[in-house]
Amino acid sequence: MSFTDPQPSEVTPDFYVNLGEPYGLRKVLTWNVDRDLVGSVLPGSIRSRSGLSVGTASVTIADPGYARTPWANGTNRIKPGGVAALVALAPDGVTQWSMGYWLIESVSGGLVSGEVSISMKEMQYSGRQIESLLPAPAAPATVTWAIDTLLRQMGFLSTPPKATWAIVSTPLNGGAHVEVGTIGTSTLAGWGAVDGRYLGASSGYFDVTFPLYGRFAGRWLVEDAPLYLTFSWPPGWTDPITFVLSAGDEQSGATIATVALTPGAGSTATLGLSVVGVGSSSTTVTTGLDPNHPHRVVVEIQRTGSPNSSLDPFKAGTYGPFRVRGKSSDAATWGAWATVAGTVSSFGVARVRIPARVAGVQVARLYSDVLFAPTNEMDLDLVDGMIVAPYVPTTVDVWSAIQSIAAAHMCAVTLTSDMVPILRGSGYLAGASPSVETIDVGRKVEDLGWSVTTEDEADRLVVKWAPTSKITFIAAGEGSSLELWSPLQWELTEKISIDPGEEIKIVADFEQPGERQVLRNWTMAFGPNRGLYNSIGASSRAAGGAEYLLGGDAISVGDTYFSATRSIITVRNISPTRVWLVDVEGNPHLQLRGAIWGLGEAVVERGLPQAQSQKTLEMDLTPHVQTLADAERIADHFWSRVQTPGWRATSIRVAPNWARQIGQIVRLVHGRSGLRVKALITRVAMNGKEGDVTQTIDVALLPTTWADVEETWTQADWTWADFADHWSGTGKTWADFADDPLSIGD
Amino acid sequence: MIPSPAPTDLTNAILPTQAPYHLGLFGEWLHLEGVTPGVDVGTERATSRMVSVDGVAWEQRAPRGPRSWSLGFEWATERTVAALRVAADSPEDVWLLDRSMAVVNMLAPTDCYGTGAALLADGMPLRRLTIDRTVSTMVRRGVTSFAALWTDAAEGEPVGMAYWPGGESPLVAPGGTAAQRASVEFVPDSDGPLTLVAFAGTTGLQVTEDWLPNEWMAGQRMPCRVSVSDPERTVTRMPDRSQALGTYSVTLREVG
What is the pLDDT of residues A209-220, one digit of tens each? Predict the structure, then answer.
């Protein structure tokens, strides 16, 4: 028996479900696994060329007995929820085929039925965390960046994972955004495949800064509290990645010390330490010791000596030299120290300058083997389309967000049964790629039922898209006292009071995507008697708010932008009295201001004018298609495909090939009927019971592309010269191109 | 139903006049007495078939087909009827031992060979194991048993290992020009599992009771767990001033 090469006579595999403890691995009586590529923005057969991957599964197992009824006592009783793994075991008892991981939705059974039925859905619909969805990128980023960033929140990591205690974490997956920390200066990063991962590919850099002082900053860079810098770089990278300590409060402060890691051509990297005005030193790190991360080094940086006050660890005390060392796997021992003597004791800001092509940087105060945790295998194509203002409603789960973006951009995101995410663009789905399999319909298909419908035709195409405009400042005040304010992103709708010493967190969901801006304003009013208001912070006072009862330091406010549509606001009352977040009239008052994007609505049209059109196809690609270029490209792509009716074929029973996946391009051929067509698999349904495994597929038929012509001719060892001979030899010219070149050789 | 004779000593060799069926009940083996000749043993293996557009037939079959034994009792003893009744009402741990199959090969059919290149076992082509395989069956206290496999390894080379209640022994290749059989004879101290570890490259695994046939014979998966139907009684004799006499029929279906 072969999972990928069915034979005319064979023994079916056994099918098992692993329900985890306490149920364990169980043999399945009957099973069903169904994956469907469903379009959300297009009708008919063209619908299937983008969109949602929907998977369901069900199994029945033998009744595990009364001890496992829902009302039984003890830990053995069956409960819904949890994860189930499906696996088929070939009759040789050795070869396995994974059918994926699923979330258990419902379990049903009976006292005498002898069977328990378990319904499951794709595990990726597992809700969302508070810190999820799309951050605002430093510059317009690709759809691939958006998909990768969202997949990351589901645990599919293309670049180093974020350690929970990281001070700075940059996935650098093509959008130049940080998971932890704040971008200072930046240039746009592109997208490219390096080392099997996806990461920024263009030139340029960006800086991530963080303070090394402050009330809560603690003791950094002393001997018992070092910093750990983790760098990953692409193969062949030989430019230094730098970490800079600066004086003062601002990034522009004078450089005090620099740590630079320079990957070498061989199996070593040079780790240099330079202290301005004191000296420099360097050491080497043996690289490539971790098979998962051959291009990753962790650097430890510290100062010896000890401060004499824990409150002010940087400006007083006895300090020894700076020193750095590194290693390239968790198991490896640290390399030798590079030490520079000196007693620099005053610095304020640290900056990591990250070249755009570096795969990721983390700064952390703890070392852990998590820094060498493996990343996931992913297969993401760089697809056309740019995201300017990431907008994902705050109520959707991550997988739905991925699917809505993919559908709008005519892509498809699917998971293989062994949980590898795949992203394919509109070109791939339209067949501009070699087929993975040729299915001989005569031999392997039970019947090819076809239908033709006018649903797939249109004489007019209307593509609706969302132009964006970024609003950074608005005028506030009157007349000569005109002030610049940032637009309102969010405001409080409930009256909230905070007791002394209490801290509250408020989840602020925006109606429009936004981002942090230097001139943001926290505007609020508070006081024990209401009706007293205040603006807090220097920038607010500059923006007009000056009157207050309690001191400006009565509360401390912080915000964290988790995405372009969500921020978490932390308000802590550090005054001795209760504080109300209300304005002078007693209404709720707490505002978050920053840049926002306006998402408009525009259309691109093809075909007949509206008055003459008999059948208009409308595609609503808002809010994810945000540039005119993308809208025009998508309109062109589909306009060429809706002018002629296509035929479709559904529920085709085929000899089972377990490797078939939705989103694959196959070729259907049948000699007797002259069928030779390329098709996209849009649904794969498999059913099984003892002695019977059936596979049914739906396909969308694809028009001929230049890729097909090339594939046909090169597979037959023909050249373009043969192609020209074929045409001229039959007396044809290019004007006769109605002849189907693919019919040659059949 | 007739009065039961004294219990049979199952440690004896097969009595040619005795029905080969024994019921395992709560860890004890009971001889099923009075079985009528003509026992029908059926197999239900699930299959399916698809015929393609151009008439190519595709057929699938299940890895195994559970068997069922239809037993009739013309002269059932009281003890046999009681045992069947208990087995029907307490189905959790009921086993069937057909000793005529146990002397052939007690292992499950597909446990006996692998998926590798074929080895000629005394003329019978059997596919070799591609990796080490551990198989198991139940053996009985005091019954002389054999574990064997076929190999073409050099003389003296260990090719397997057998573990039984109360002992263990390696299987060693006897050597020779063609494939040879390595075997071990043993008598278990108690009822329990025999575990046979066959190394990659061997094939033709075989475990038997009483004697080891010269040739490899297909696995019979015996003893096996069964589900016993309620004994059906047909009253055939109703003499005056005496109890009525009847015949019984019962179906034993393989489970597990």
Answer: 766 654 334 455
Q: Using a CB–CB cutoff of 8 Å, tell me whether A499 touches chain B.
A: no
In what side-by-side order are the strands of the sheet with A514-515?
A468-471, A595-599, A514-515
For residue range A43-71, what is the model confidence (pLDDT) as tens digits? 554 544 555 666 889 999 887 677 677 78
Do A445 and B110 lie within an 8 Å CB cutoff? no
* Token pair belonging to B37: 């000749």
Task: Encode chain B (256 residues) as per-residue pLDDT tens digits.
Answer: 666 777 665 554 445 457 788 999 988 888 888 888 888 899 989 999 999 999 999 999 998 889 999 999 887 888 888 899 999 998 888 999 998 899 999 999 888 998 889 999 888 999 999 989 999 999 998 889 999 999 999 899 999 999 999 999 999 999 888 889 999 999 999 999 999 999 999 999 999 998 898 889 999 998 999 999 998 888 887 778 777 778 899 999 998 8
Say yes or no for a CB contact (<8 Å) between A11 and B114: no
Yes or no, beta carbons of B58 and A690 under 8 Å apart = no
Q: CA gyration radius for chain A?
A: 31
**Torsion angle in degrees (nearest 10) through CA of A413, A416, A422, A425:** -60
Indicate the angle between helix axes A720-729 and A706-715, nearest 10 degrees.
100
* 3-state class (DSSP) for residue B87: helix
Residues of B in contact with A441 (CB under 8 A): 52-53
What Rg value do the Cα atoms of chain B yield, rounded?
21
Classify A398 as helix, strand or coil: helix
Span A148-200, pLDDT tens digits: 888 888 888 776 677 777 777 777 666 556 777 665 554 444 443 333 344 44
**Among all residues of chain A, which has the CA nearest to that of B51?**
A446
Q: Are strands A483-485 and A522-525 parallel, antiparallel or unpaired?
A: unpaired
Q: What's the rounded Cα separation, in Å, for the pair A413 and A407? A: 9
Residue B185 pLDDT: 94
Q: Which of residues 217-246 of A touch B (CB under 8 A)?
A: none
What is the CA angle B113-B117-B119, rounded to 5?
65
Task: Report CA torsion sign: A434, A437, A440, A445.
Answer: negative
Give the highest mean pLDDT range of A480-484, A496-500, B175-179, B220-224: B220-224
Nearest to A59 by CA among A516, A557, A687: A687
Question: What distance in Å separates residue B69's CA from the closest CA in chain A?
Answer: 21
Using CA coordinates, name the residue in chain A closest to B135.
A93
Query: Which chain B residues are within 8 Å of A450, Cβ to Cβ?
Result: none
Helical (H) or strand (E) element with B200 = none
Q: Do B50 and A653 touch (CB under 8 A)?
A: yes
Instruction: Say yes or no to pLDDT of A541 above 70.
Output: no
Question: Which of B52, B60, B63 lies at the smallest CB-CB distance from A14?
Answer: B63
A8 with B56: Cβ contact below 8 A: yes
Among the listed residues A521, A211, A231, A508, the one whose alpha carbon sits nearest the alpha carbon of residue A357: A231
What ipTM did this prediction achieve? 0.77
Interchain CB contact of A696 with B (< 8 Å): no
How many Å lie between the alpha carbon of B44 and the closest alpha carbon of chain A?
Answer: 11
Residues in chain A: 746
Answer for the pair A351, A286: CB distance below 8 angstroms, yes or no: no
Query: Which pair of tokens denotes residue A568?
Result: 């978490």
Angle between helices A398-408 and A143-153 (to 10 degrees): 170
User: Which pair of tokens denotes residue A328?
Assistant: 């390239």
Q: Are A273 and A338 within 8 A, CB to CB?
A: yes
Cross-chain residue pair A694–B50, CB shorter than 8 Å? yes
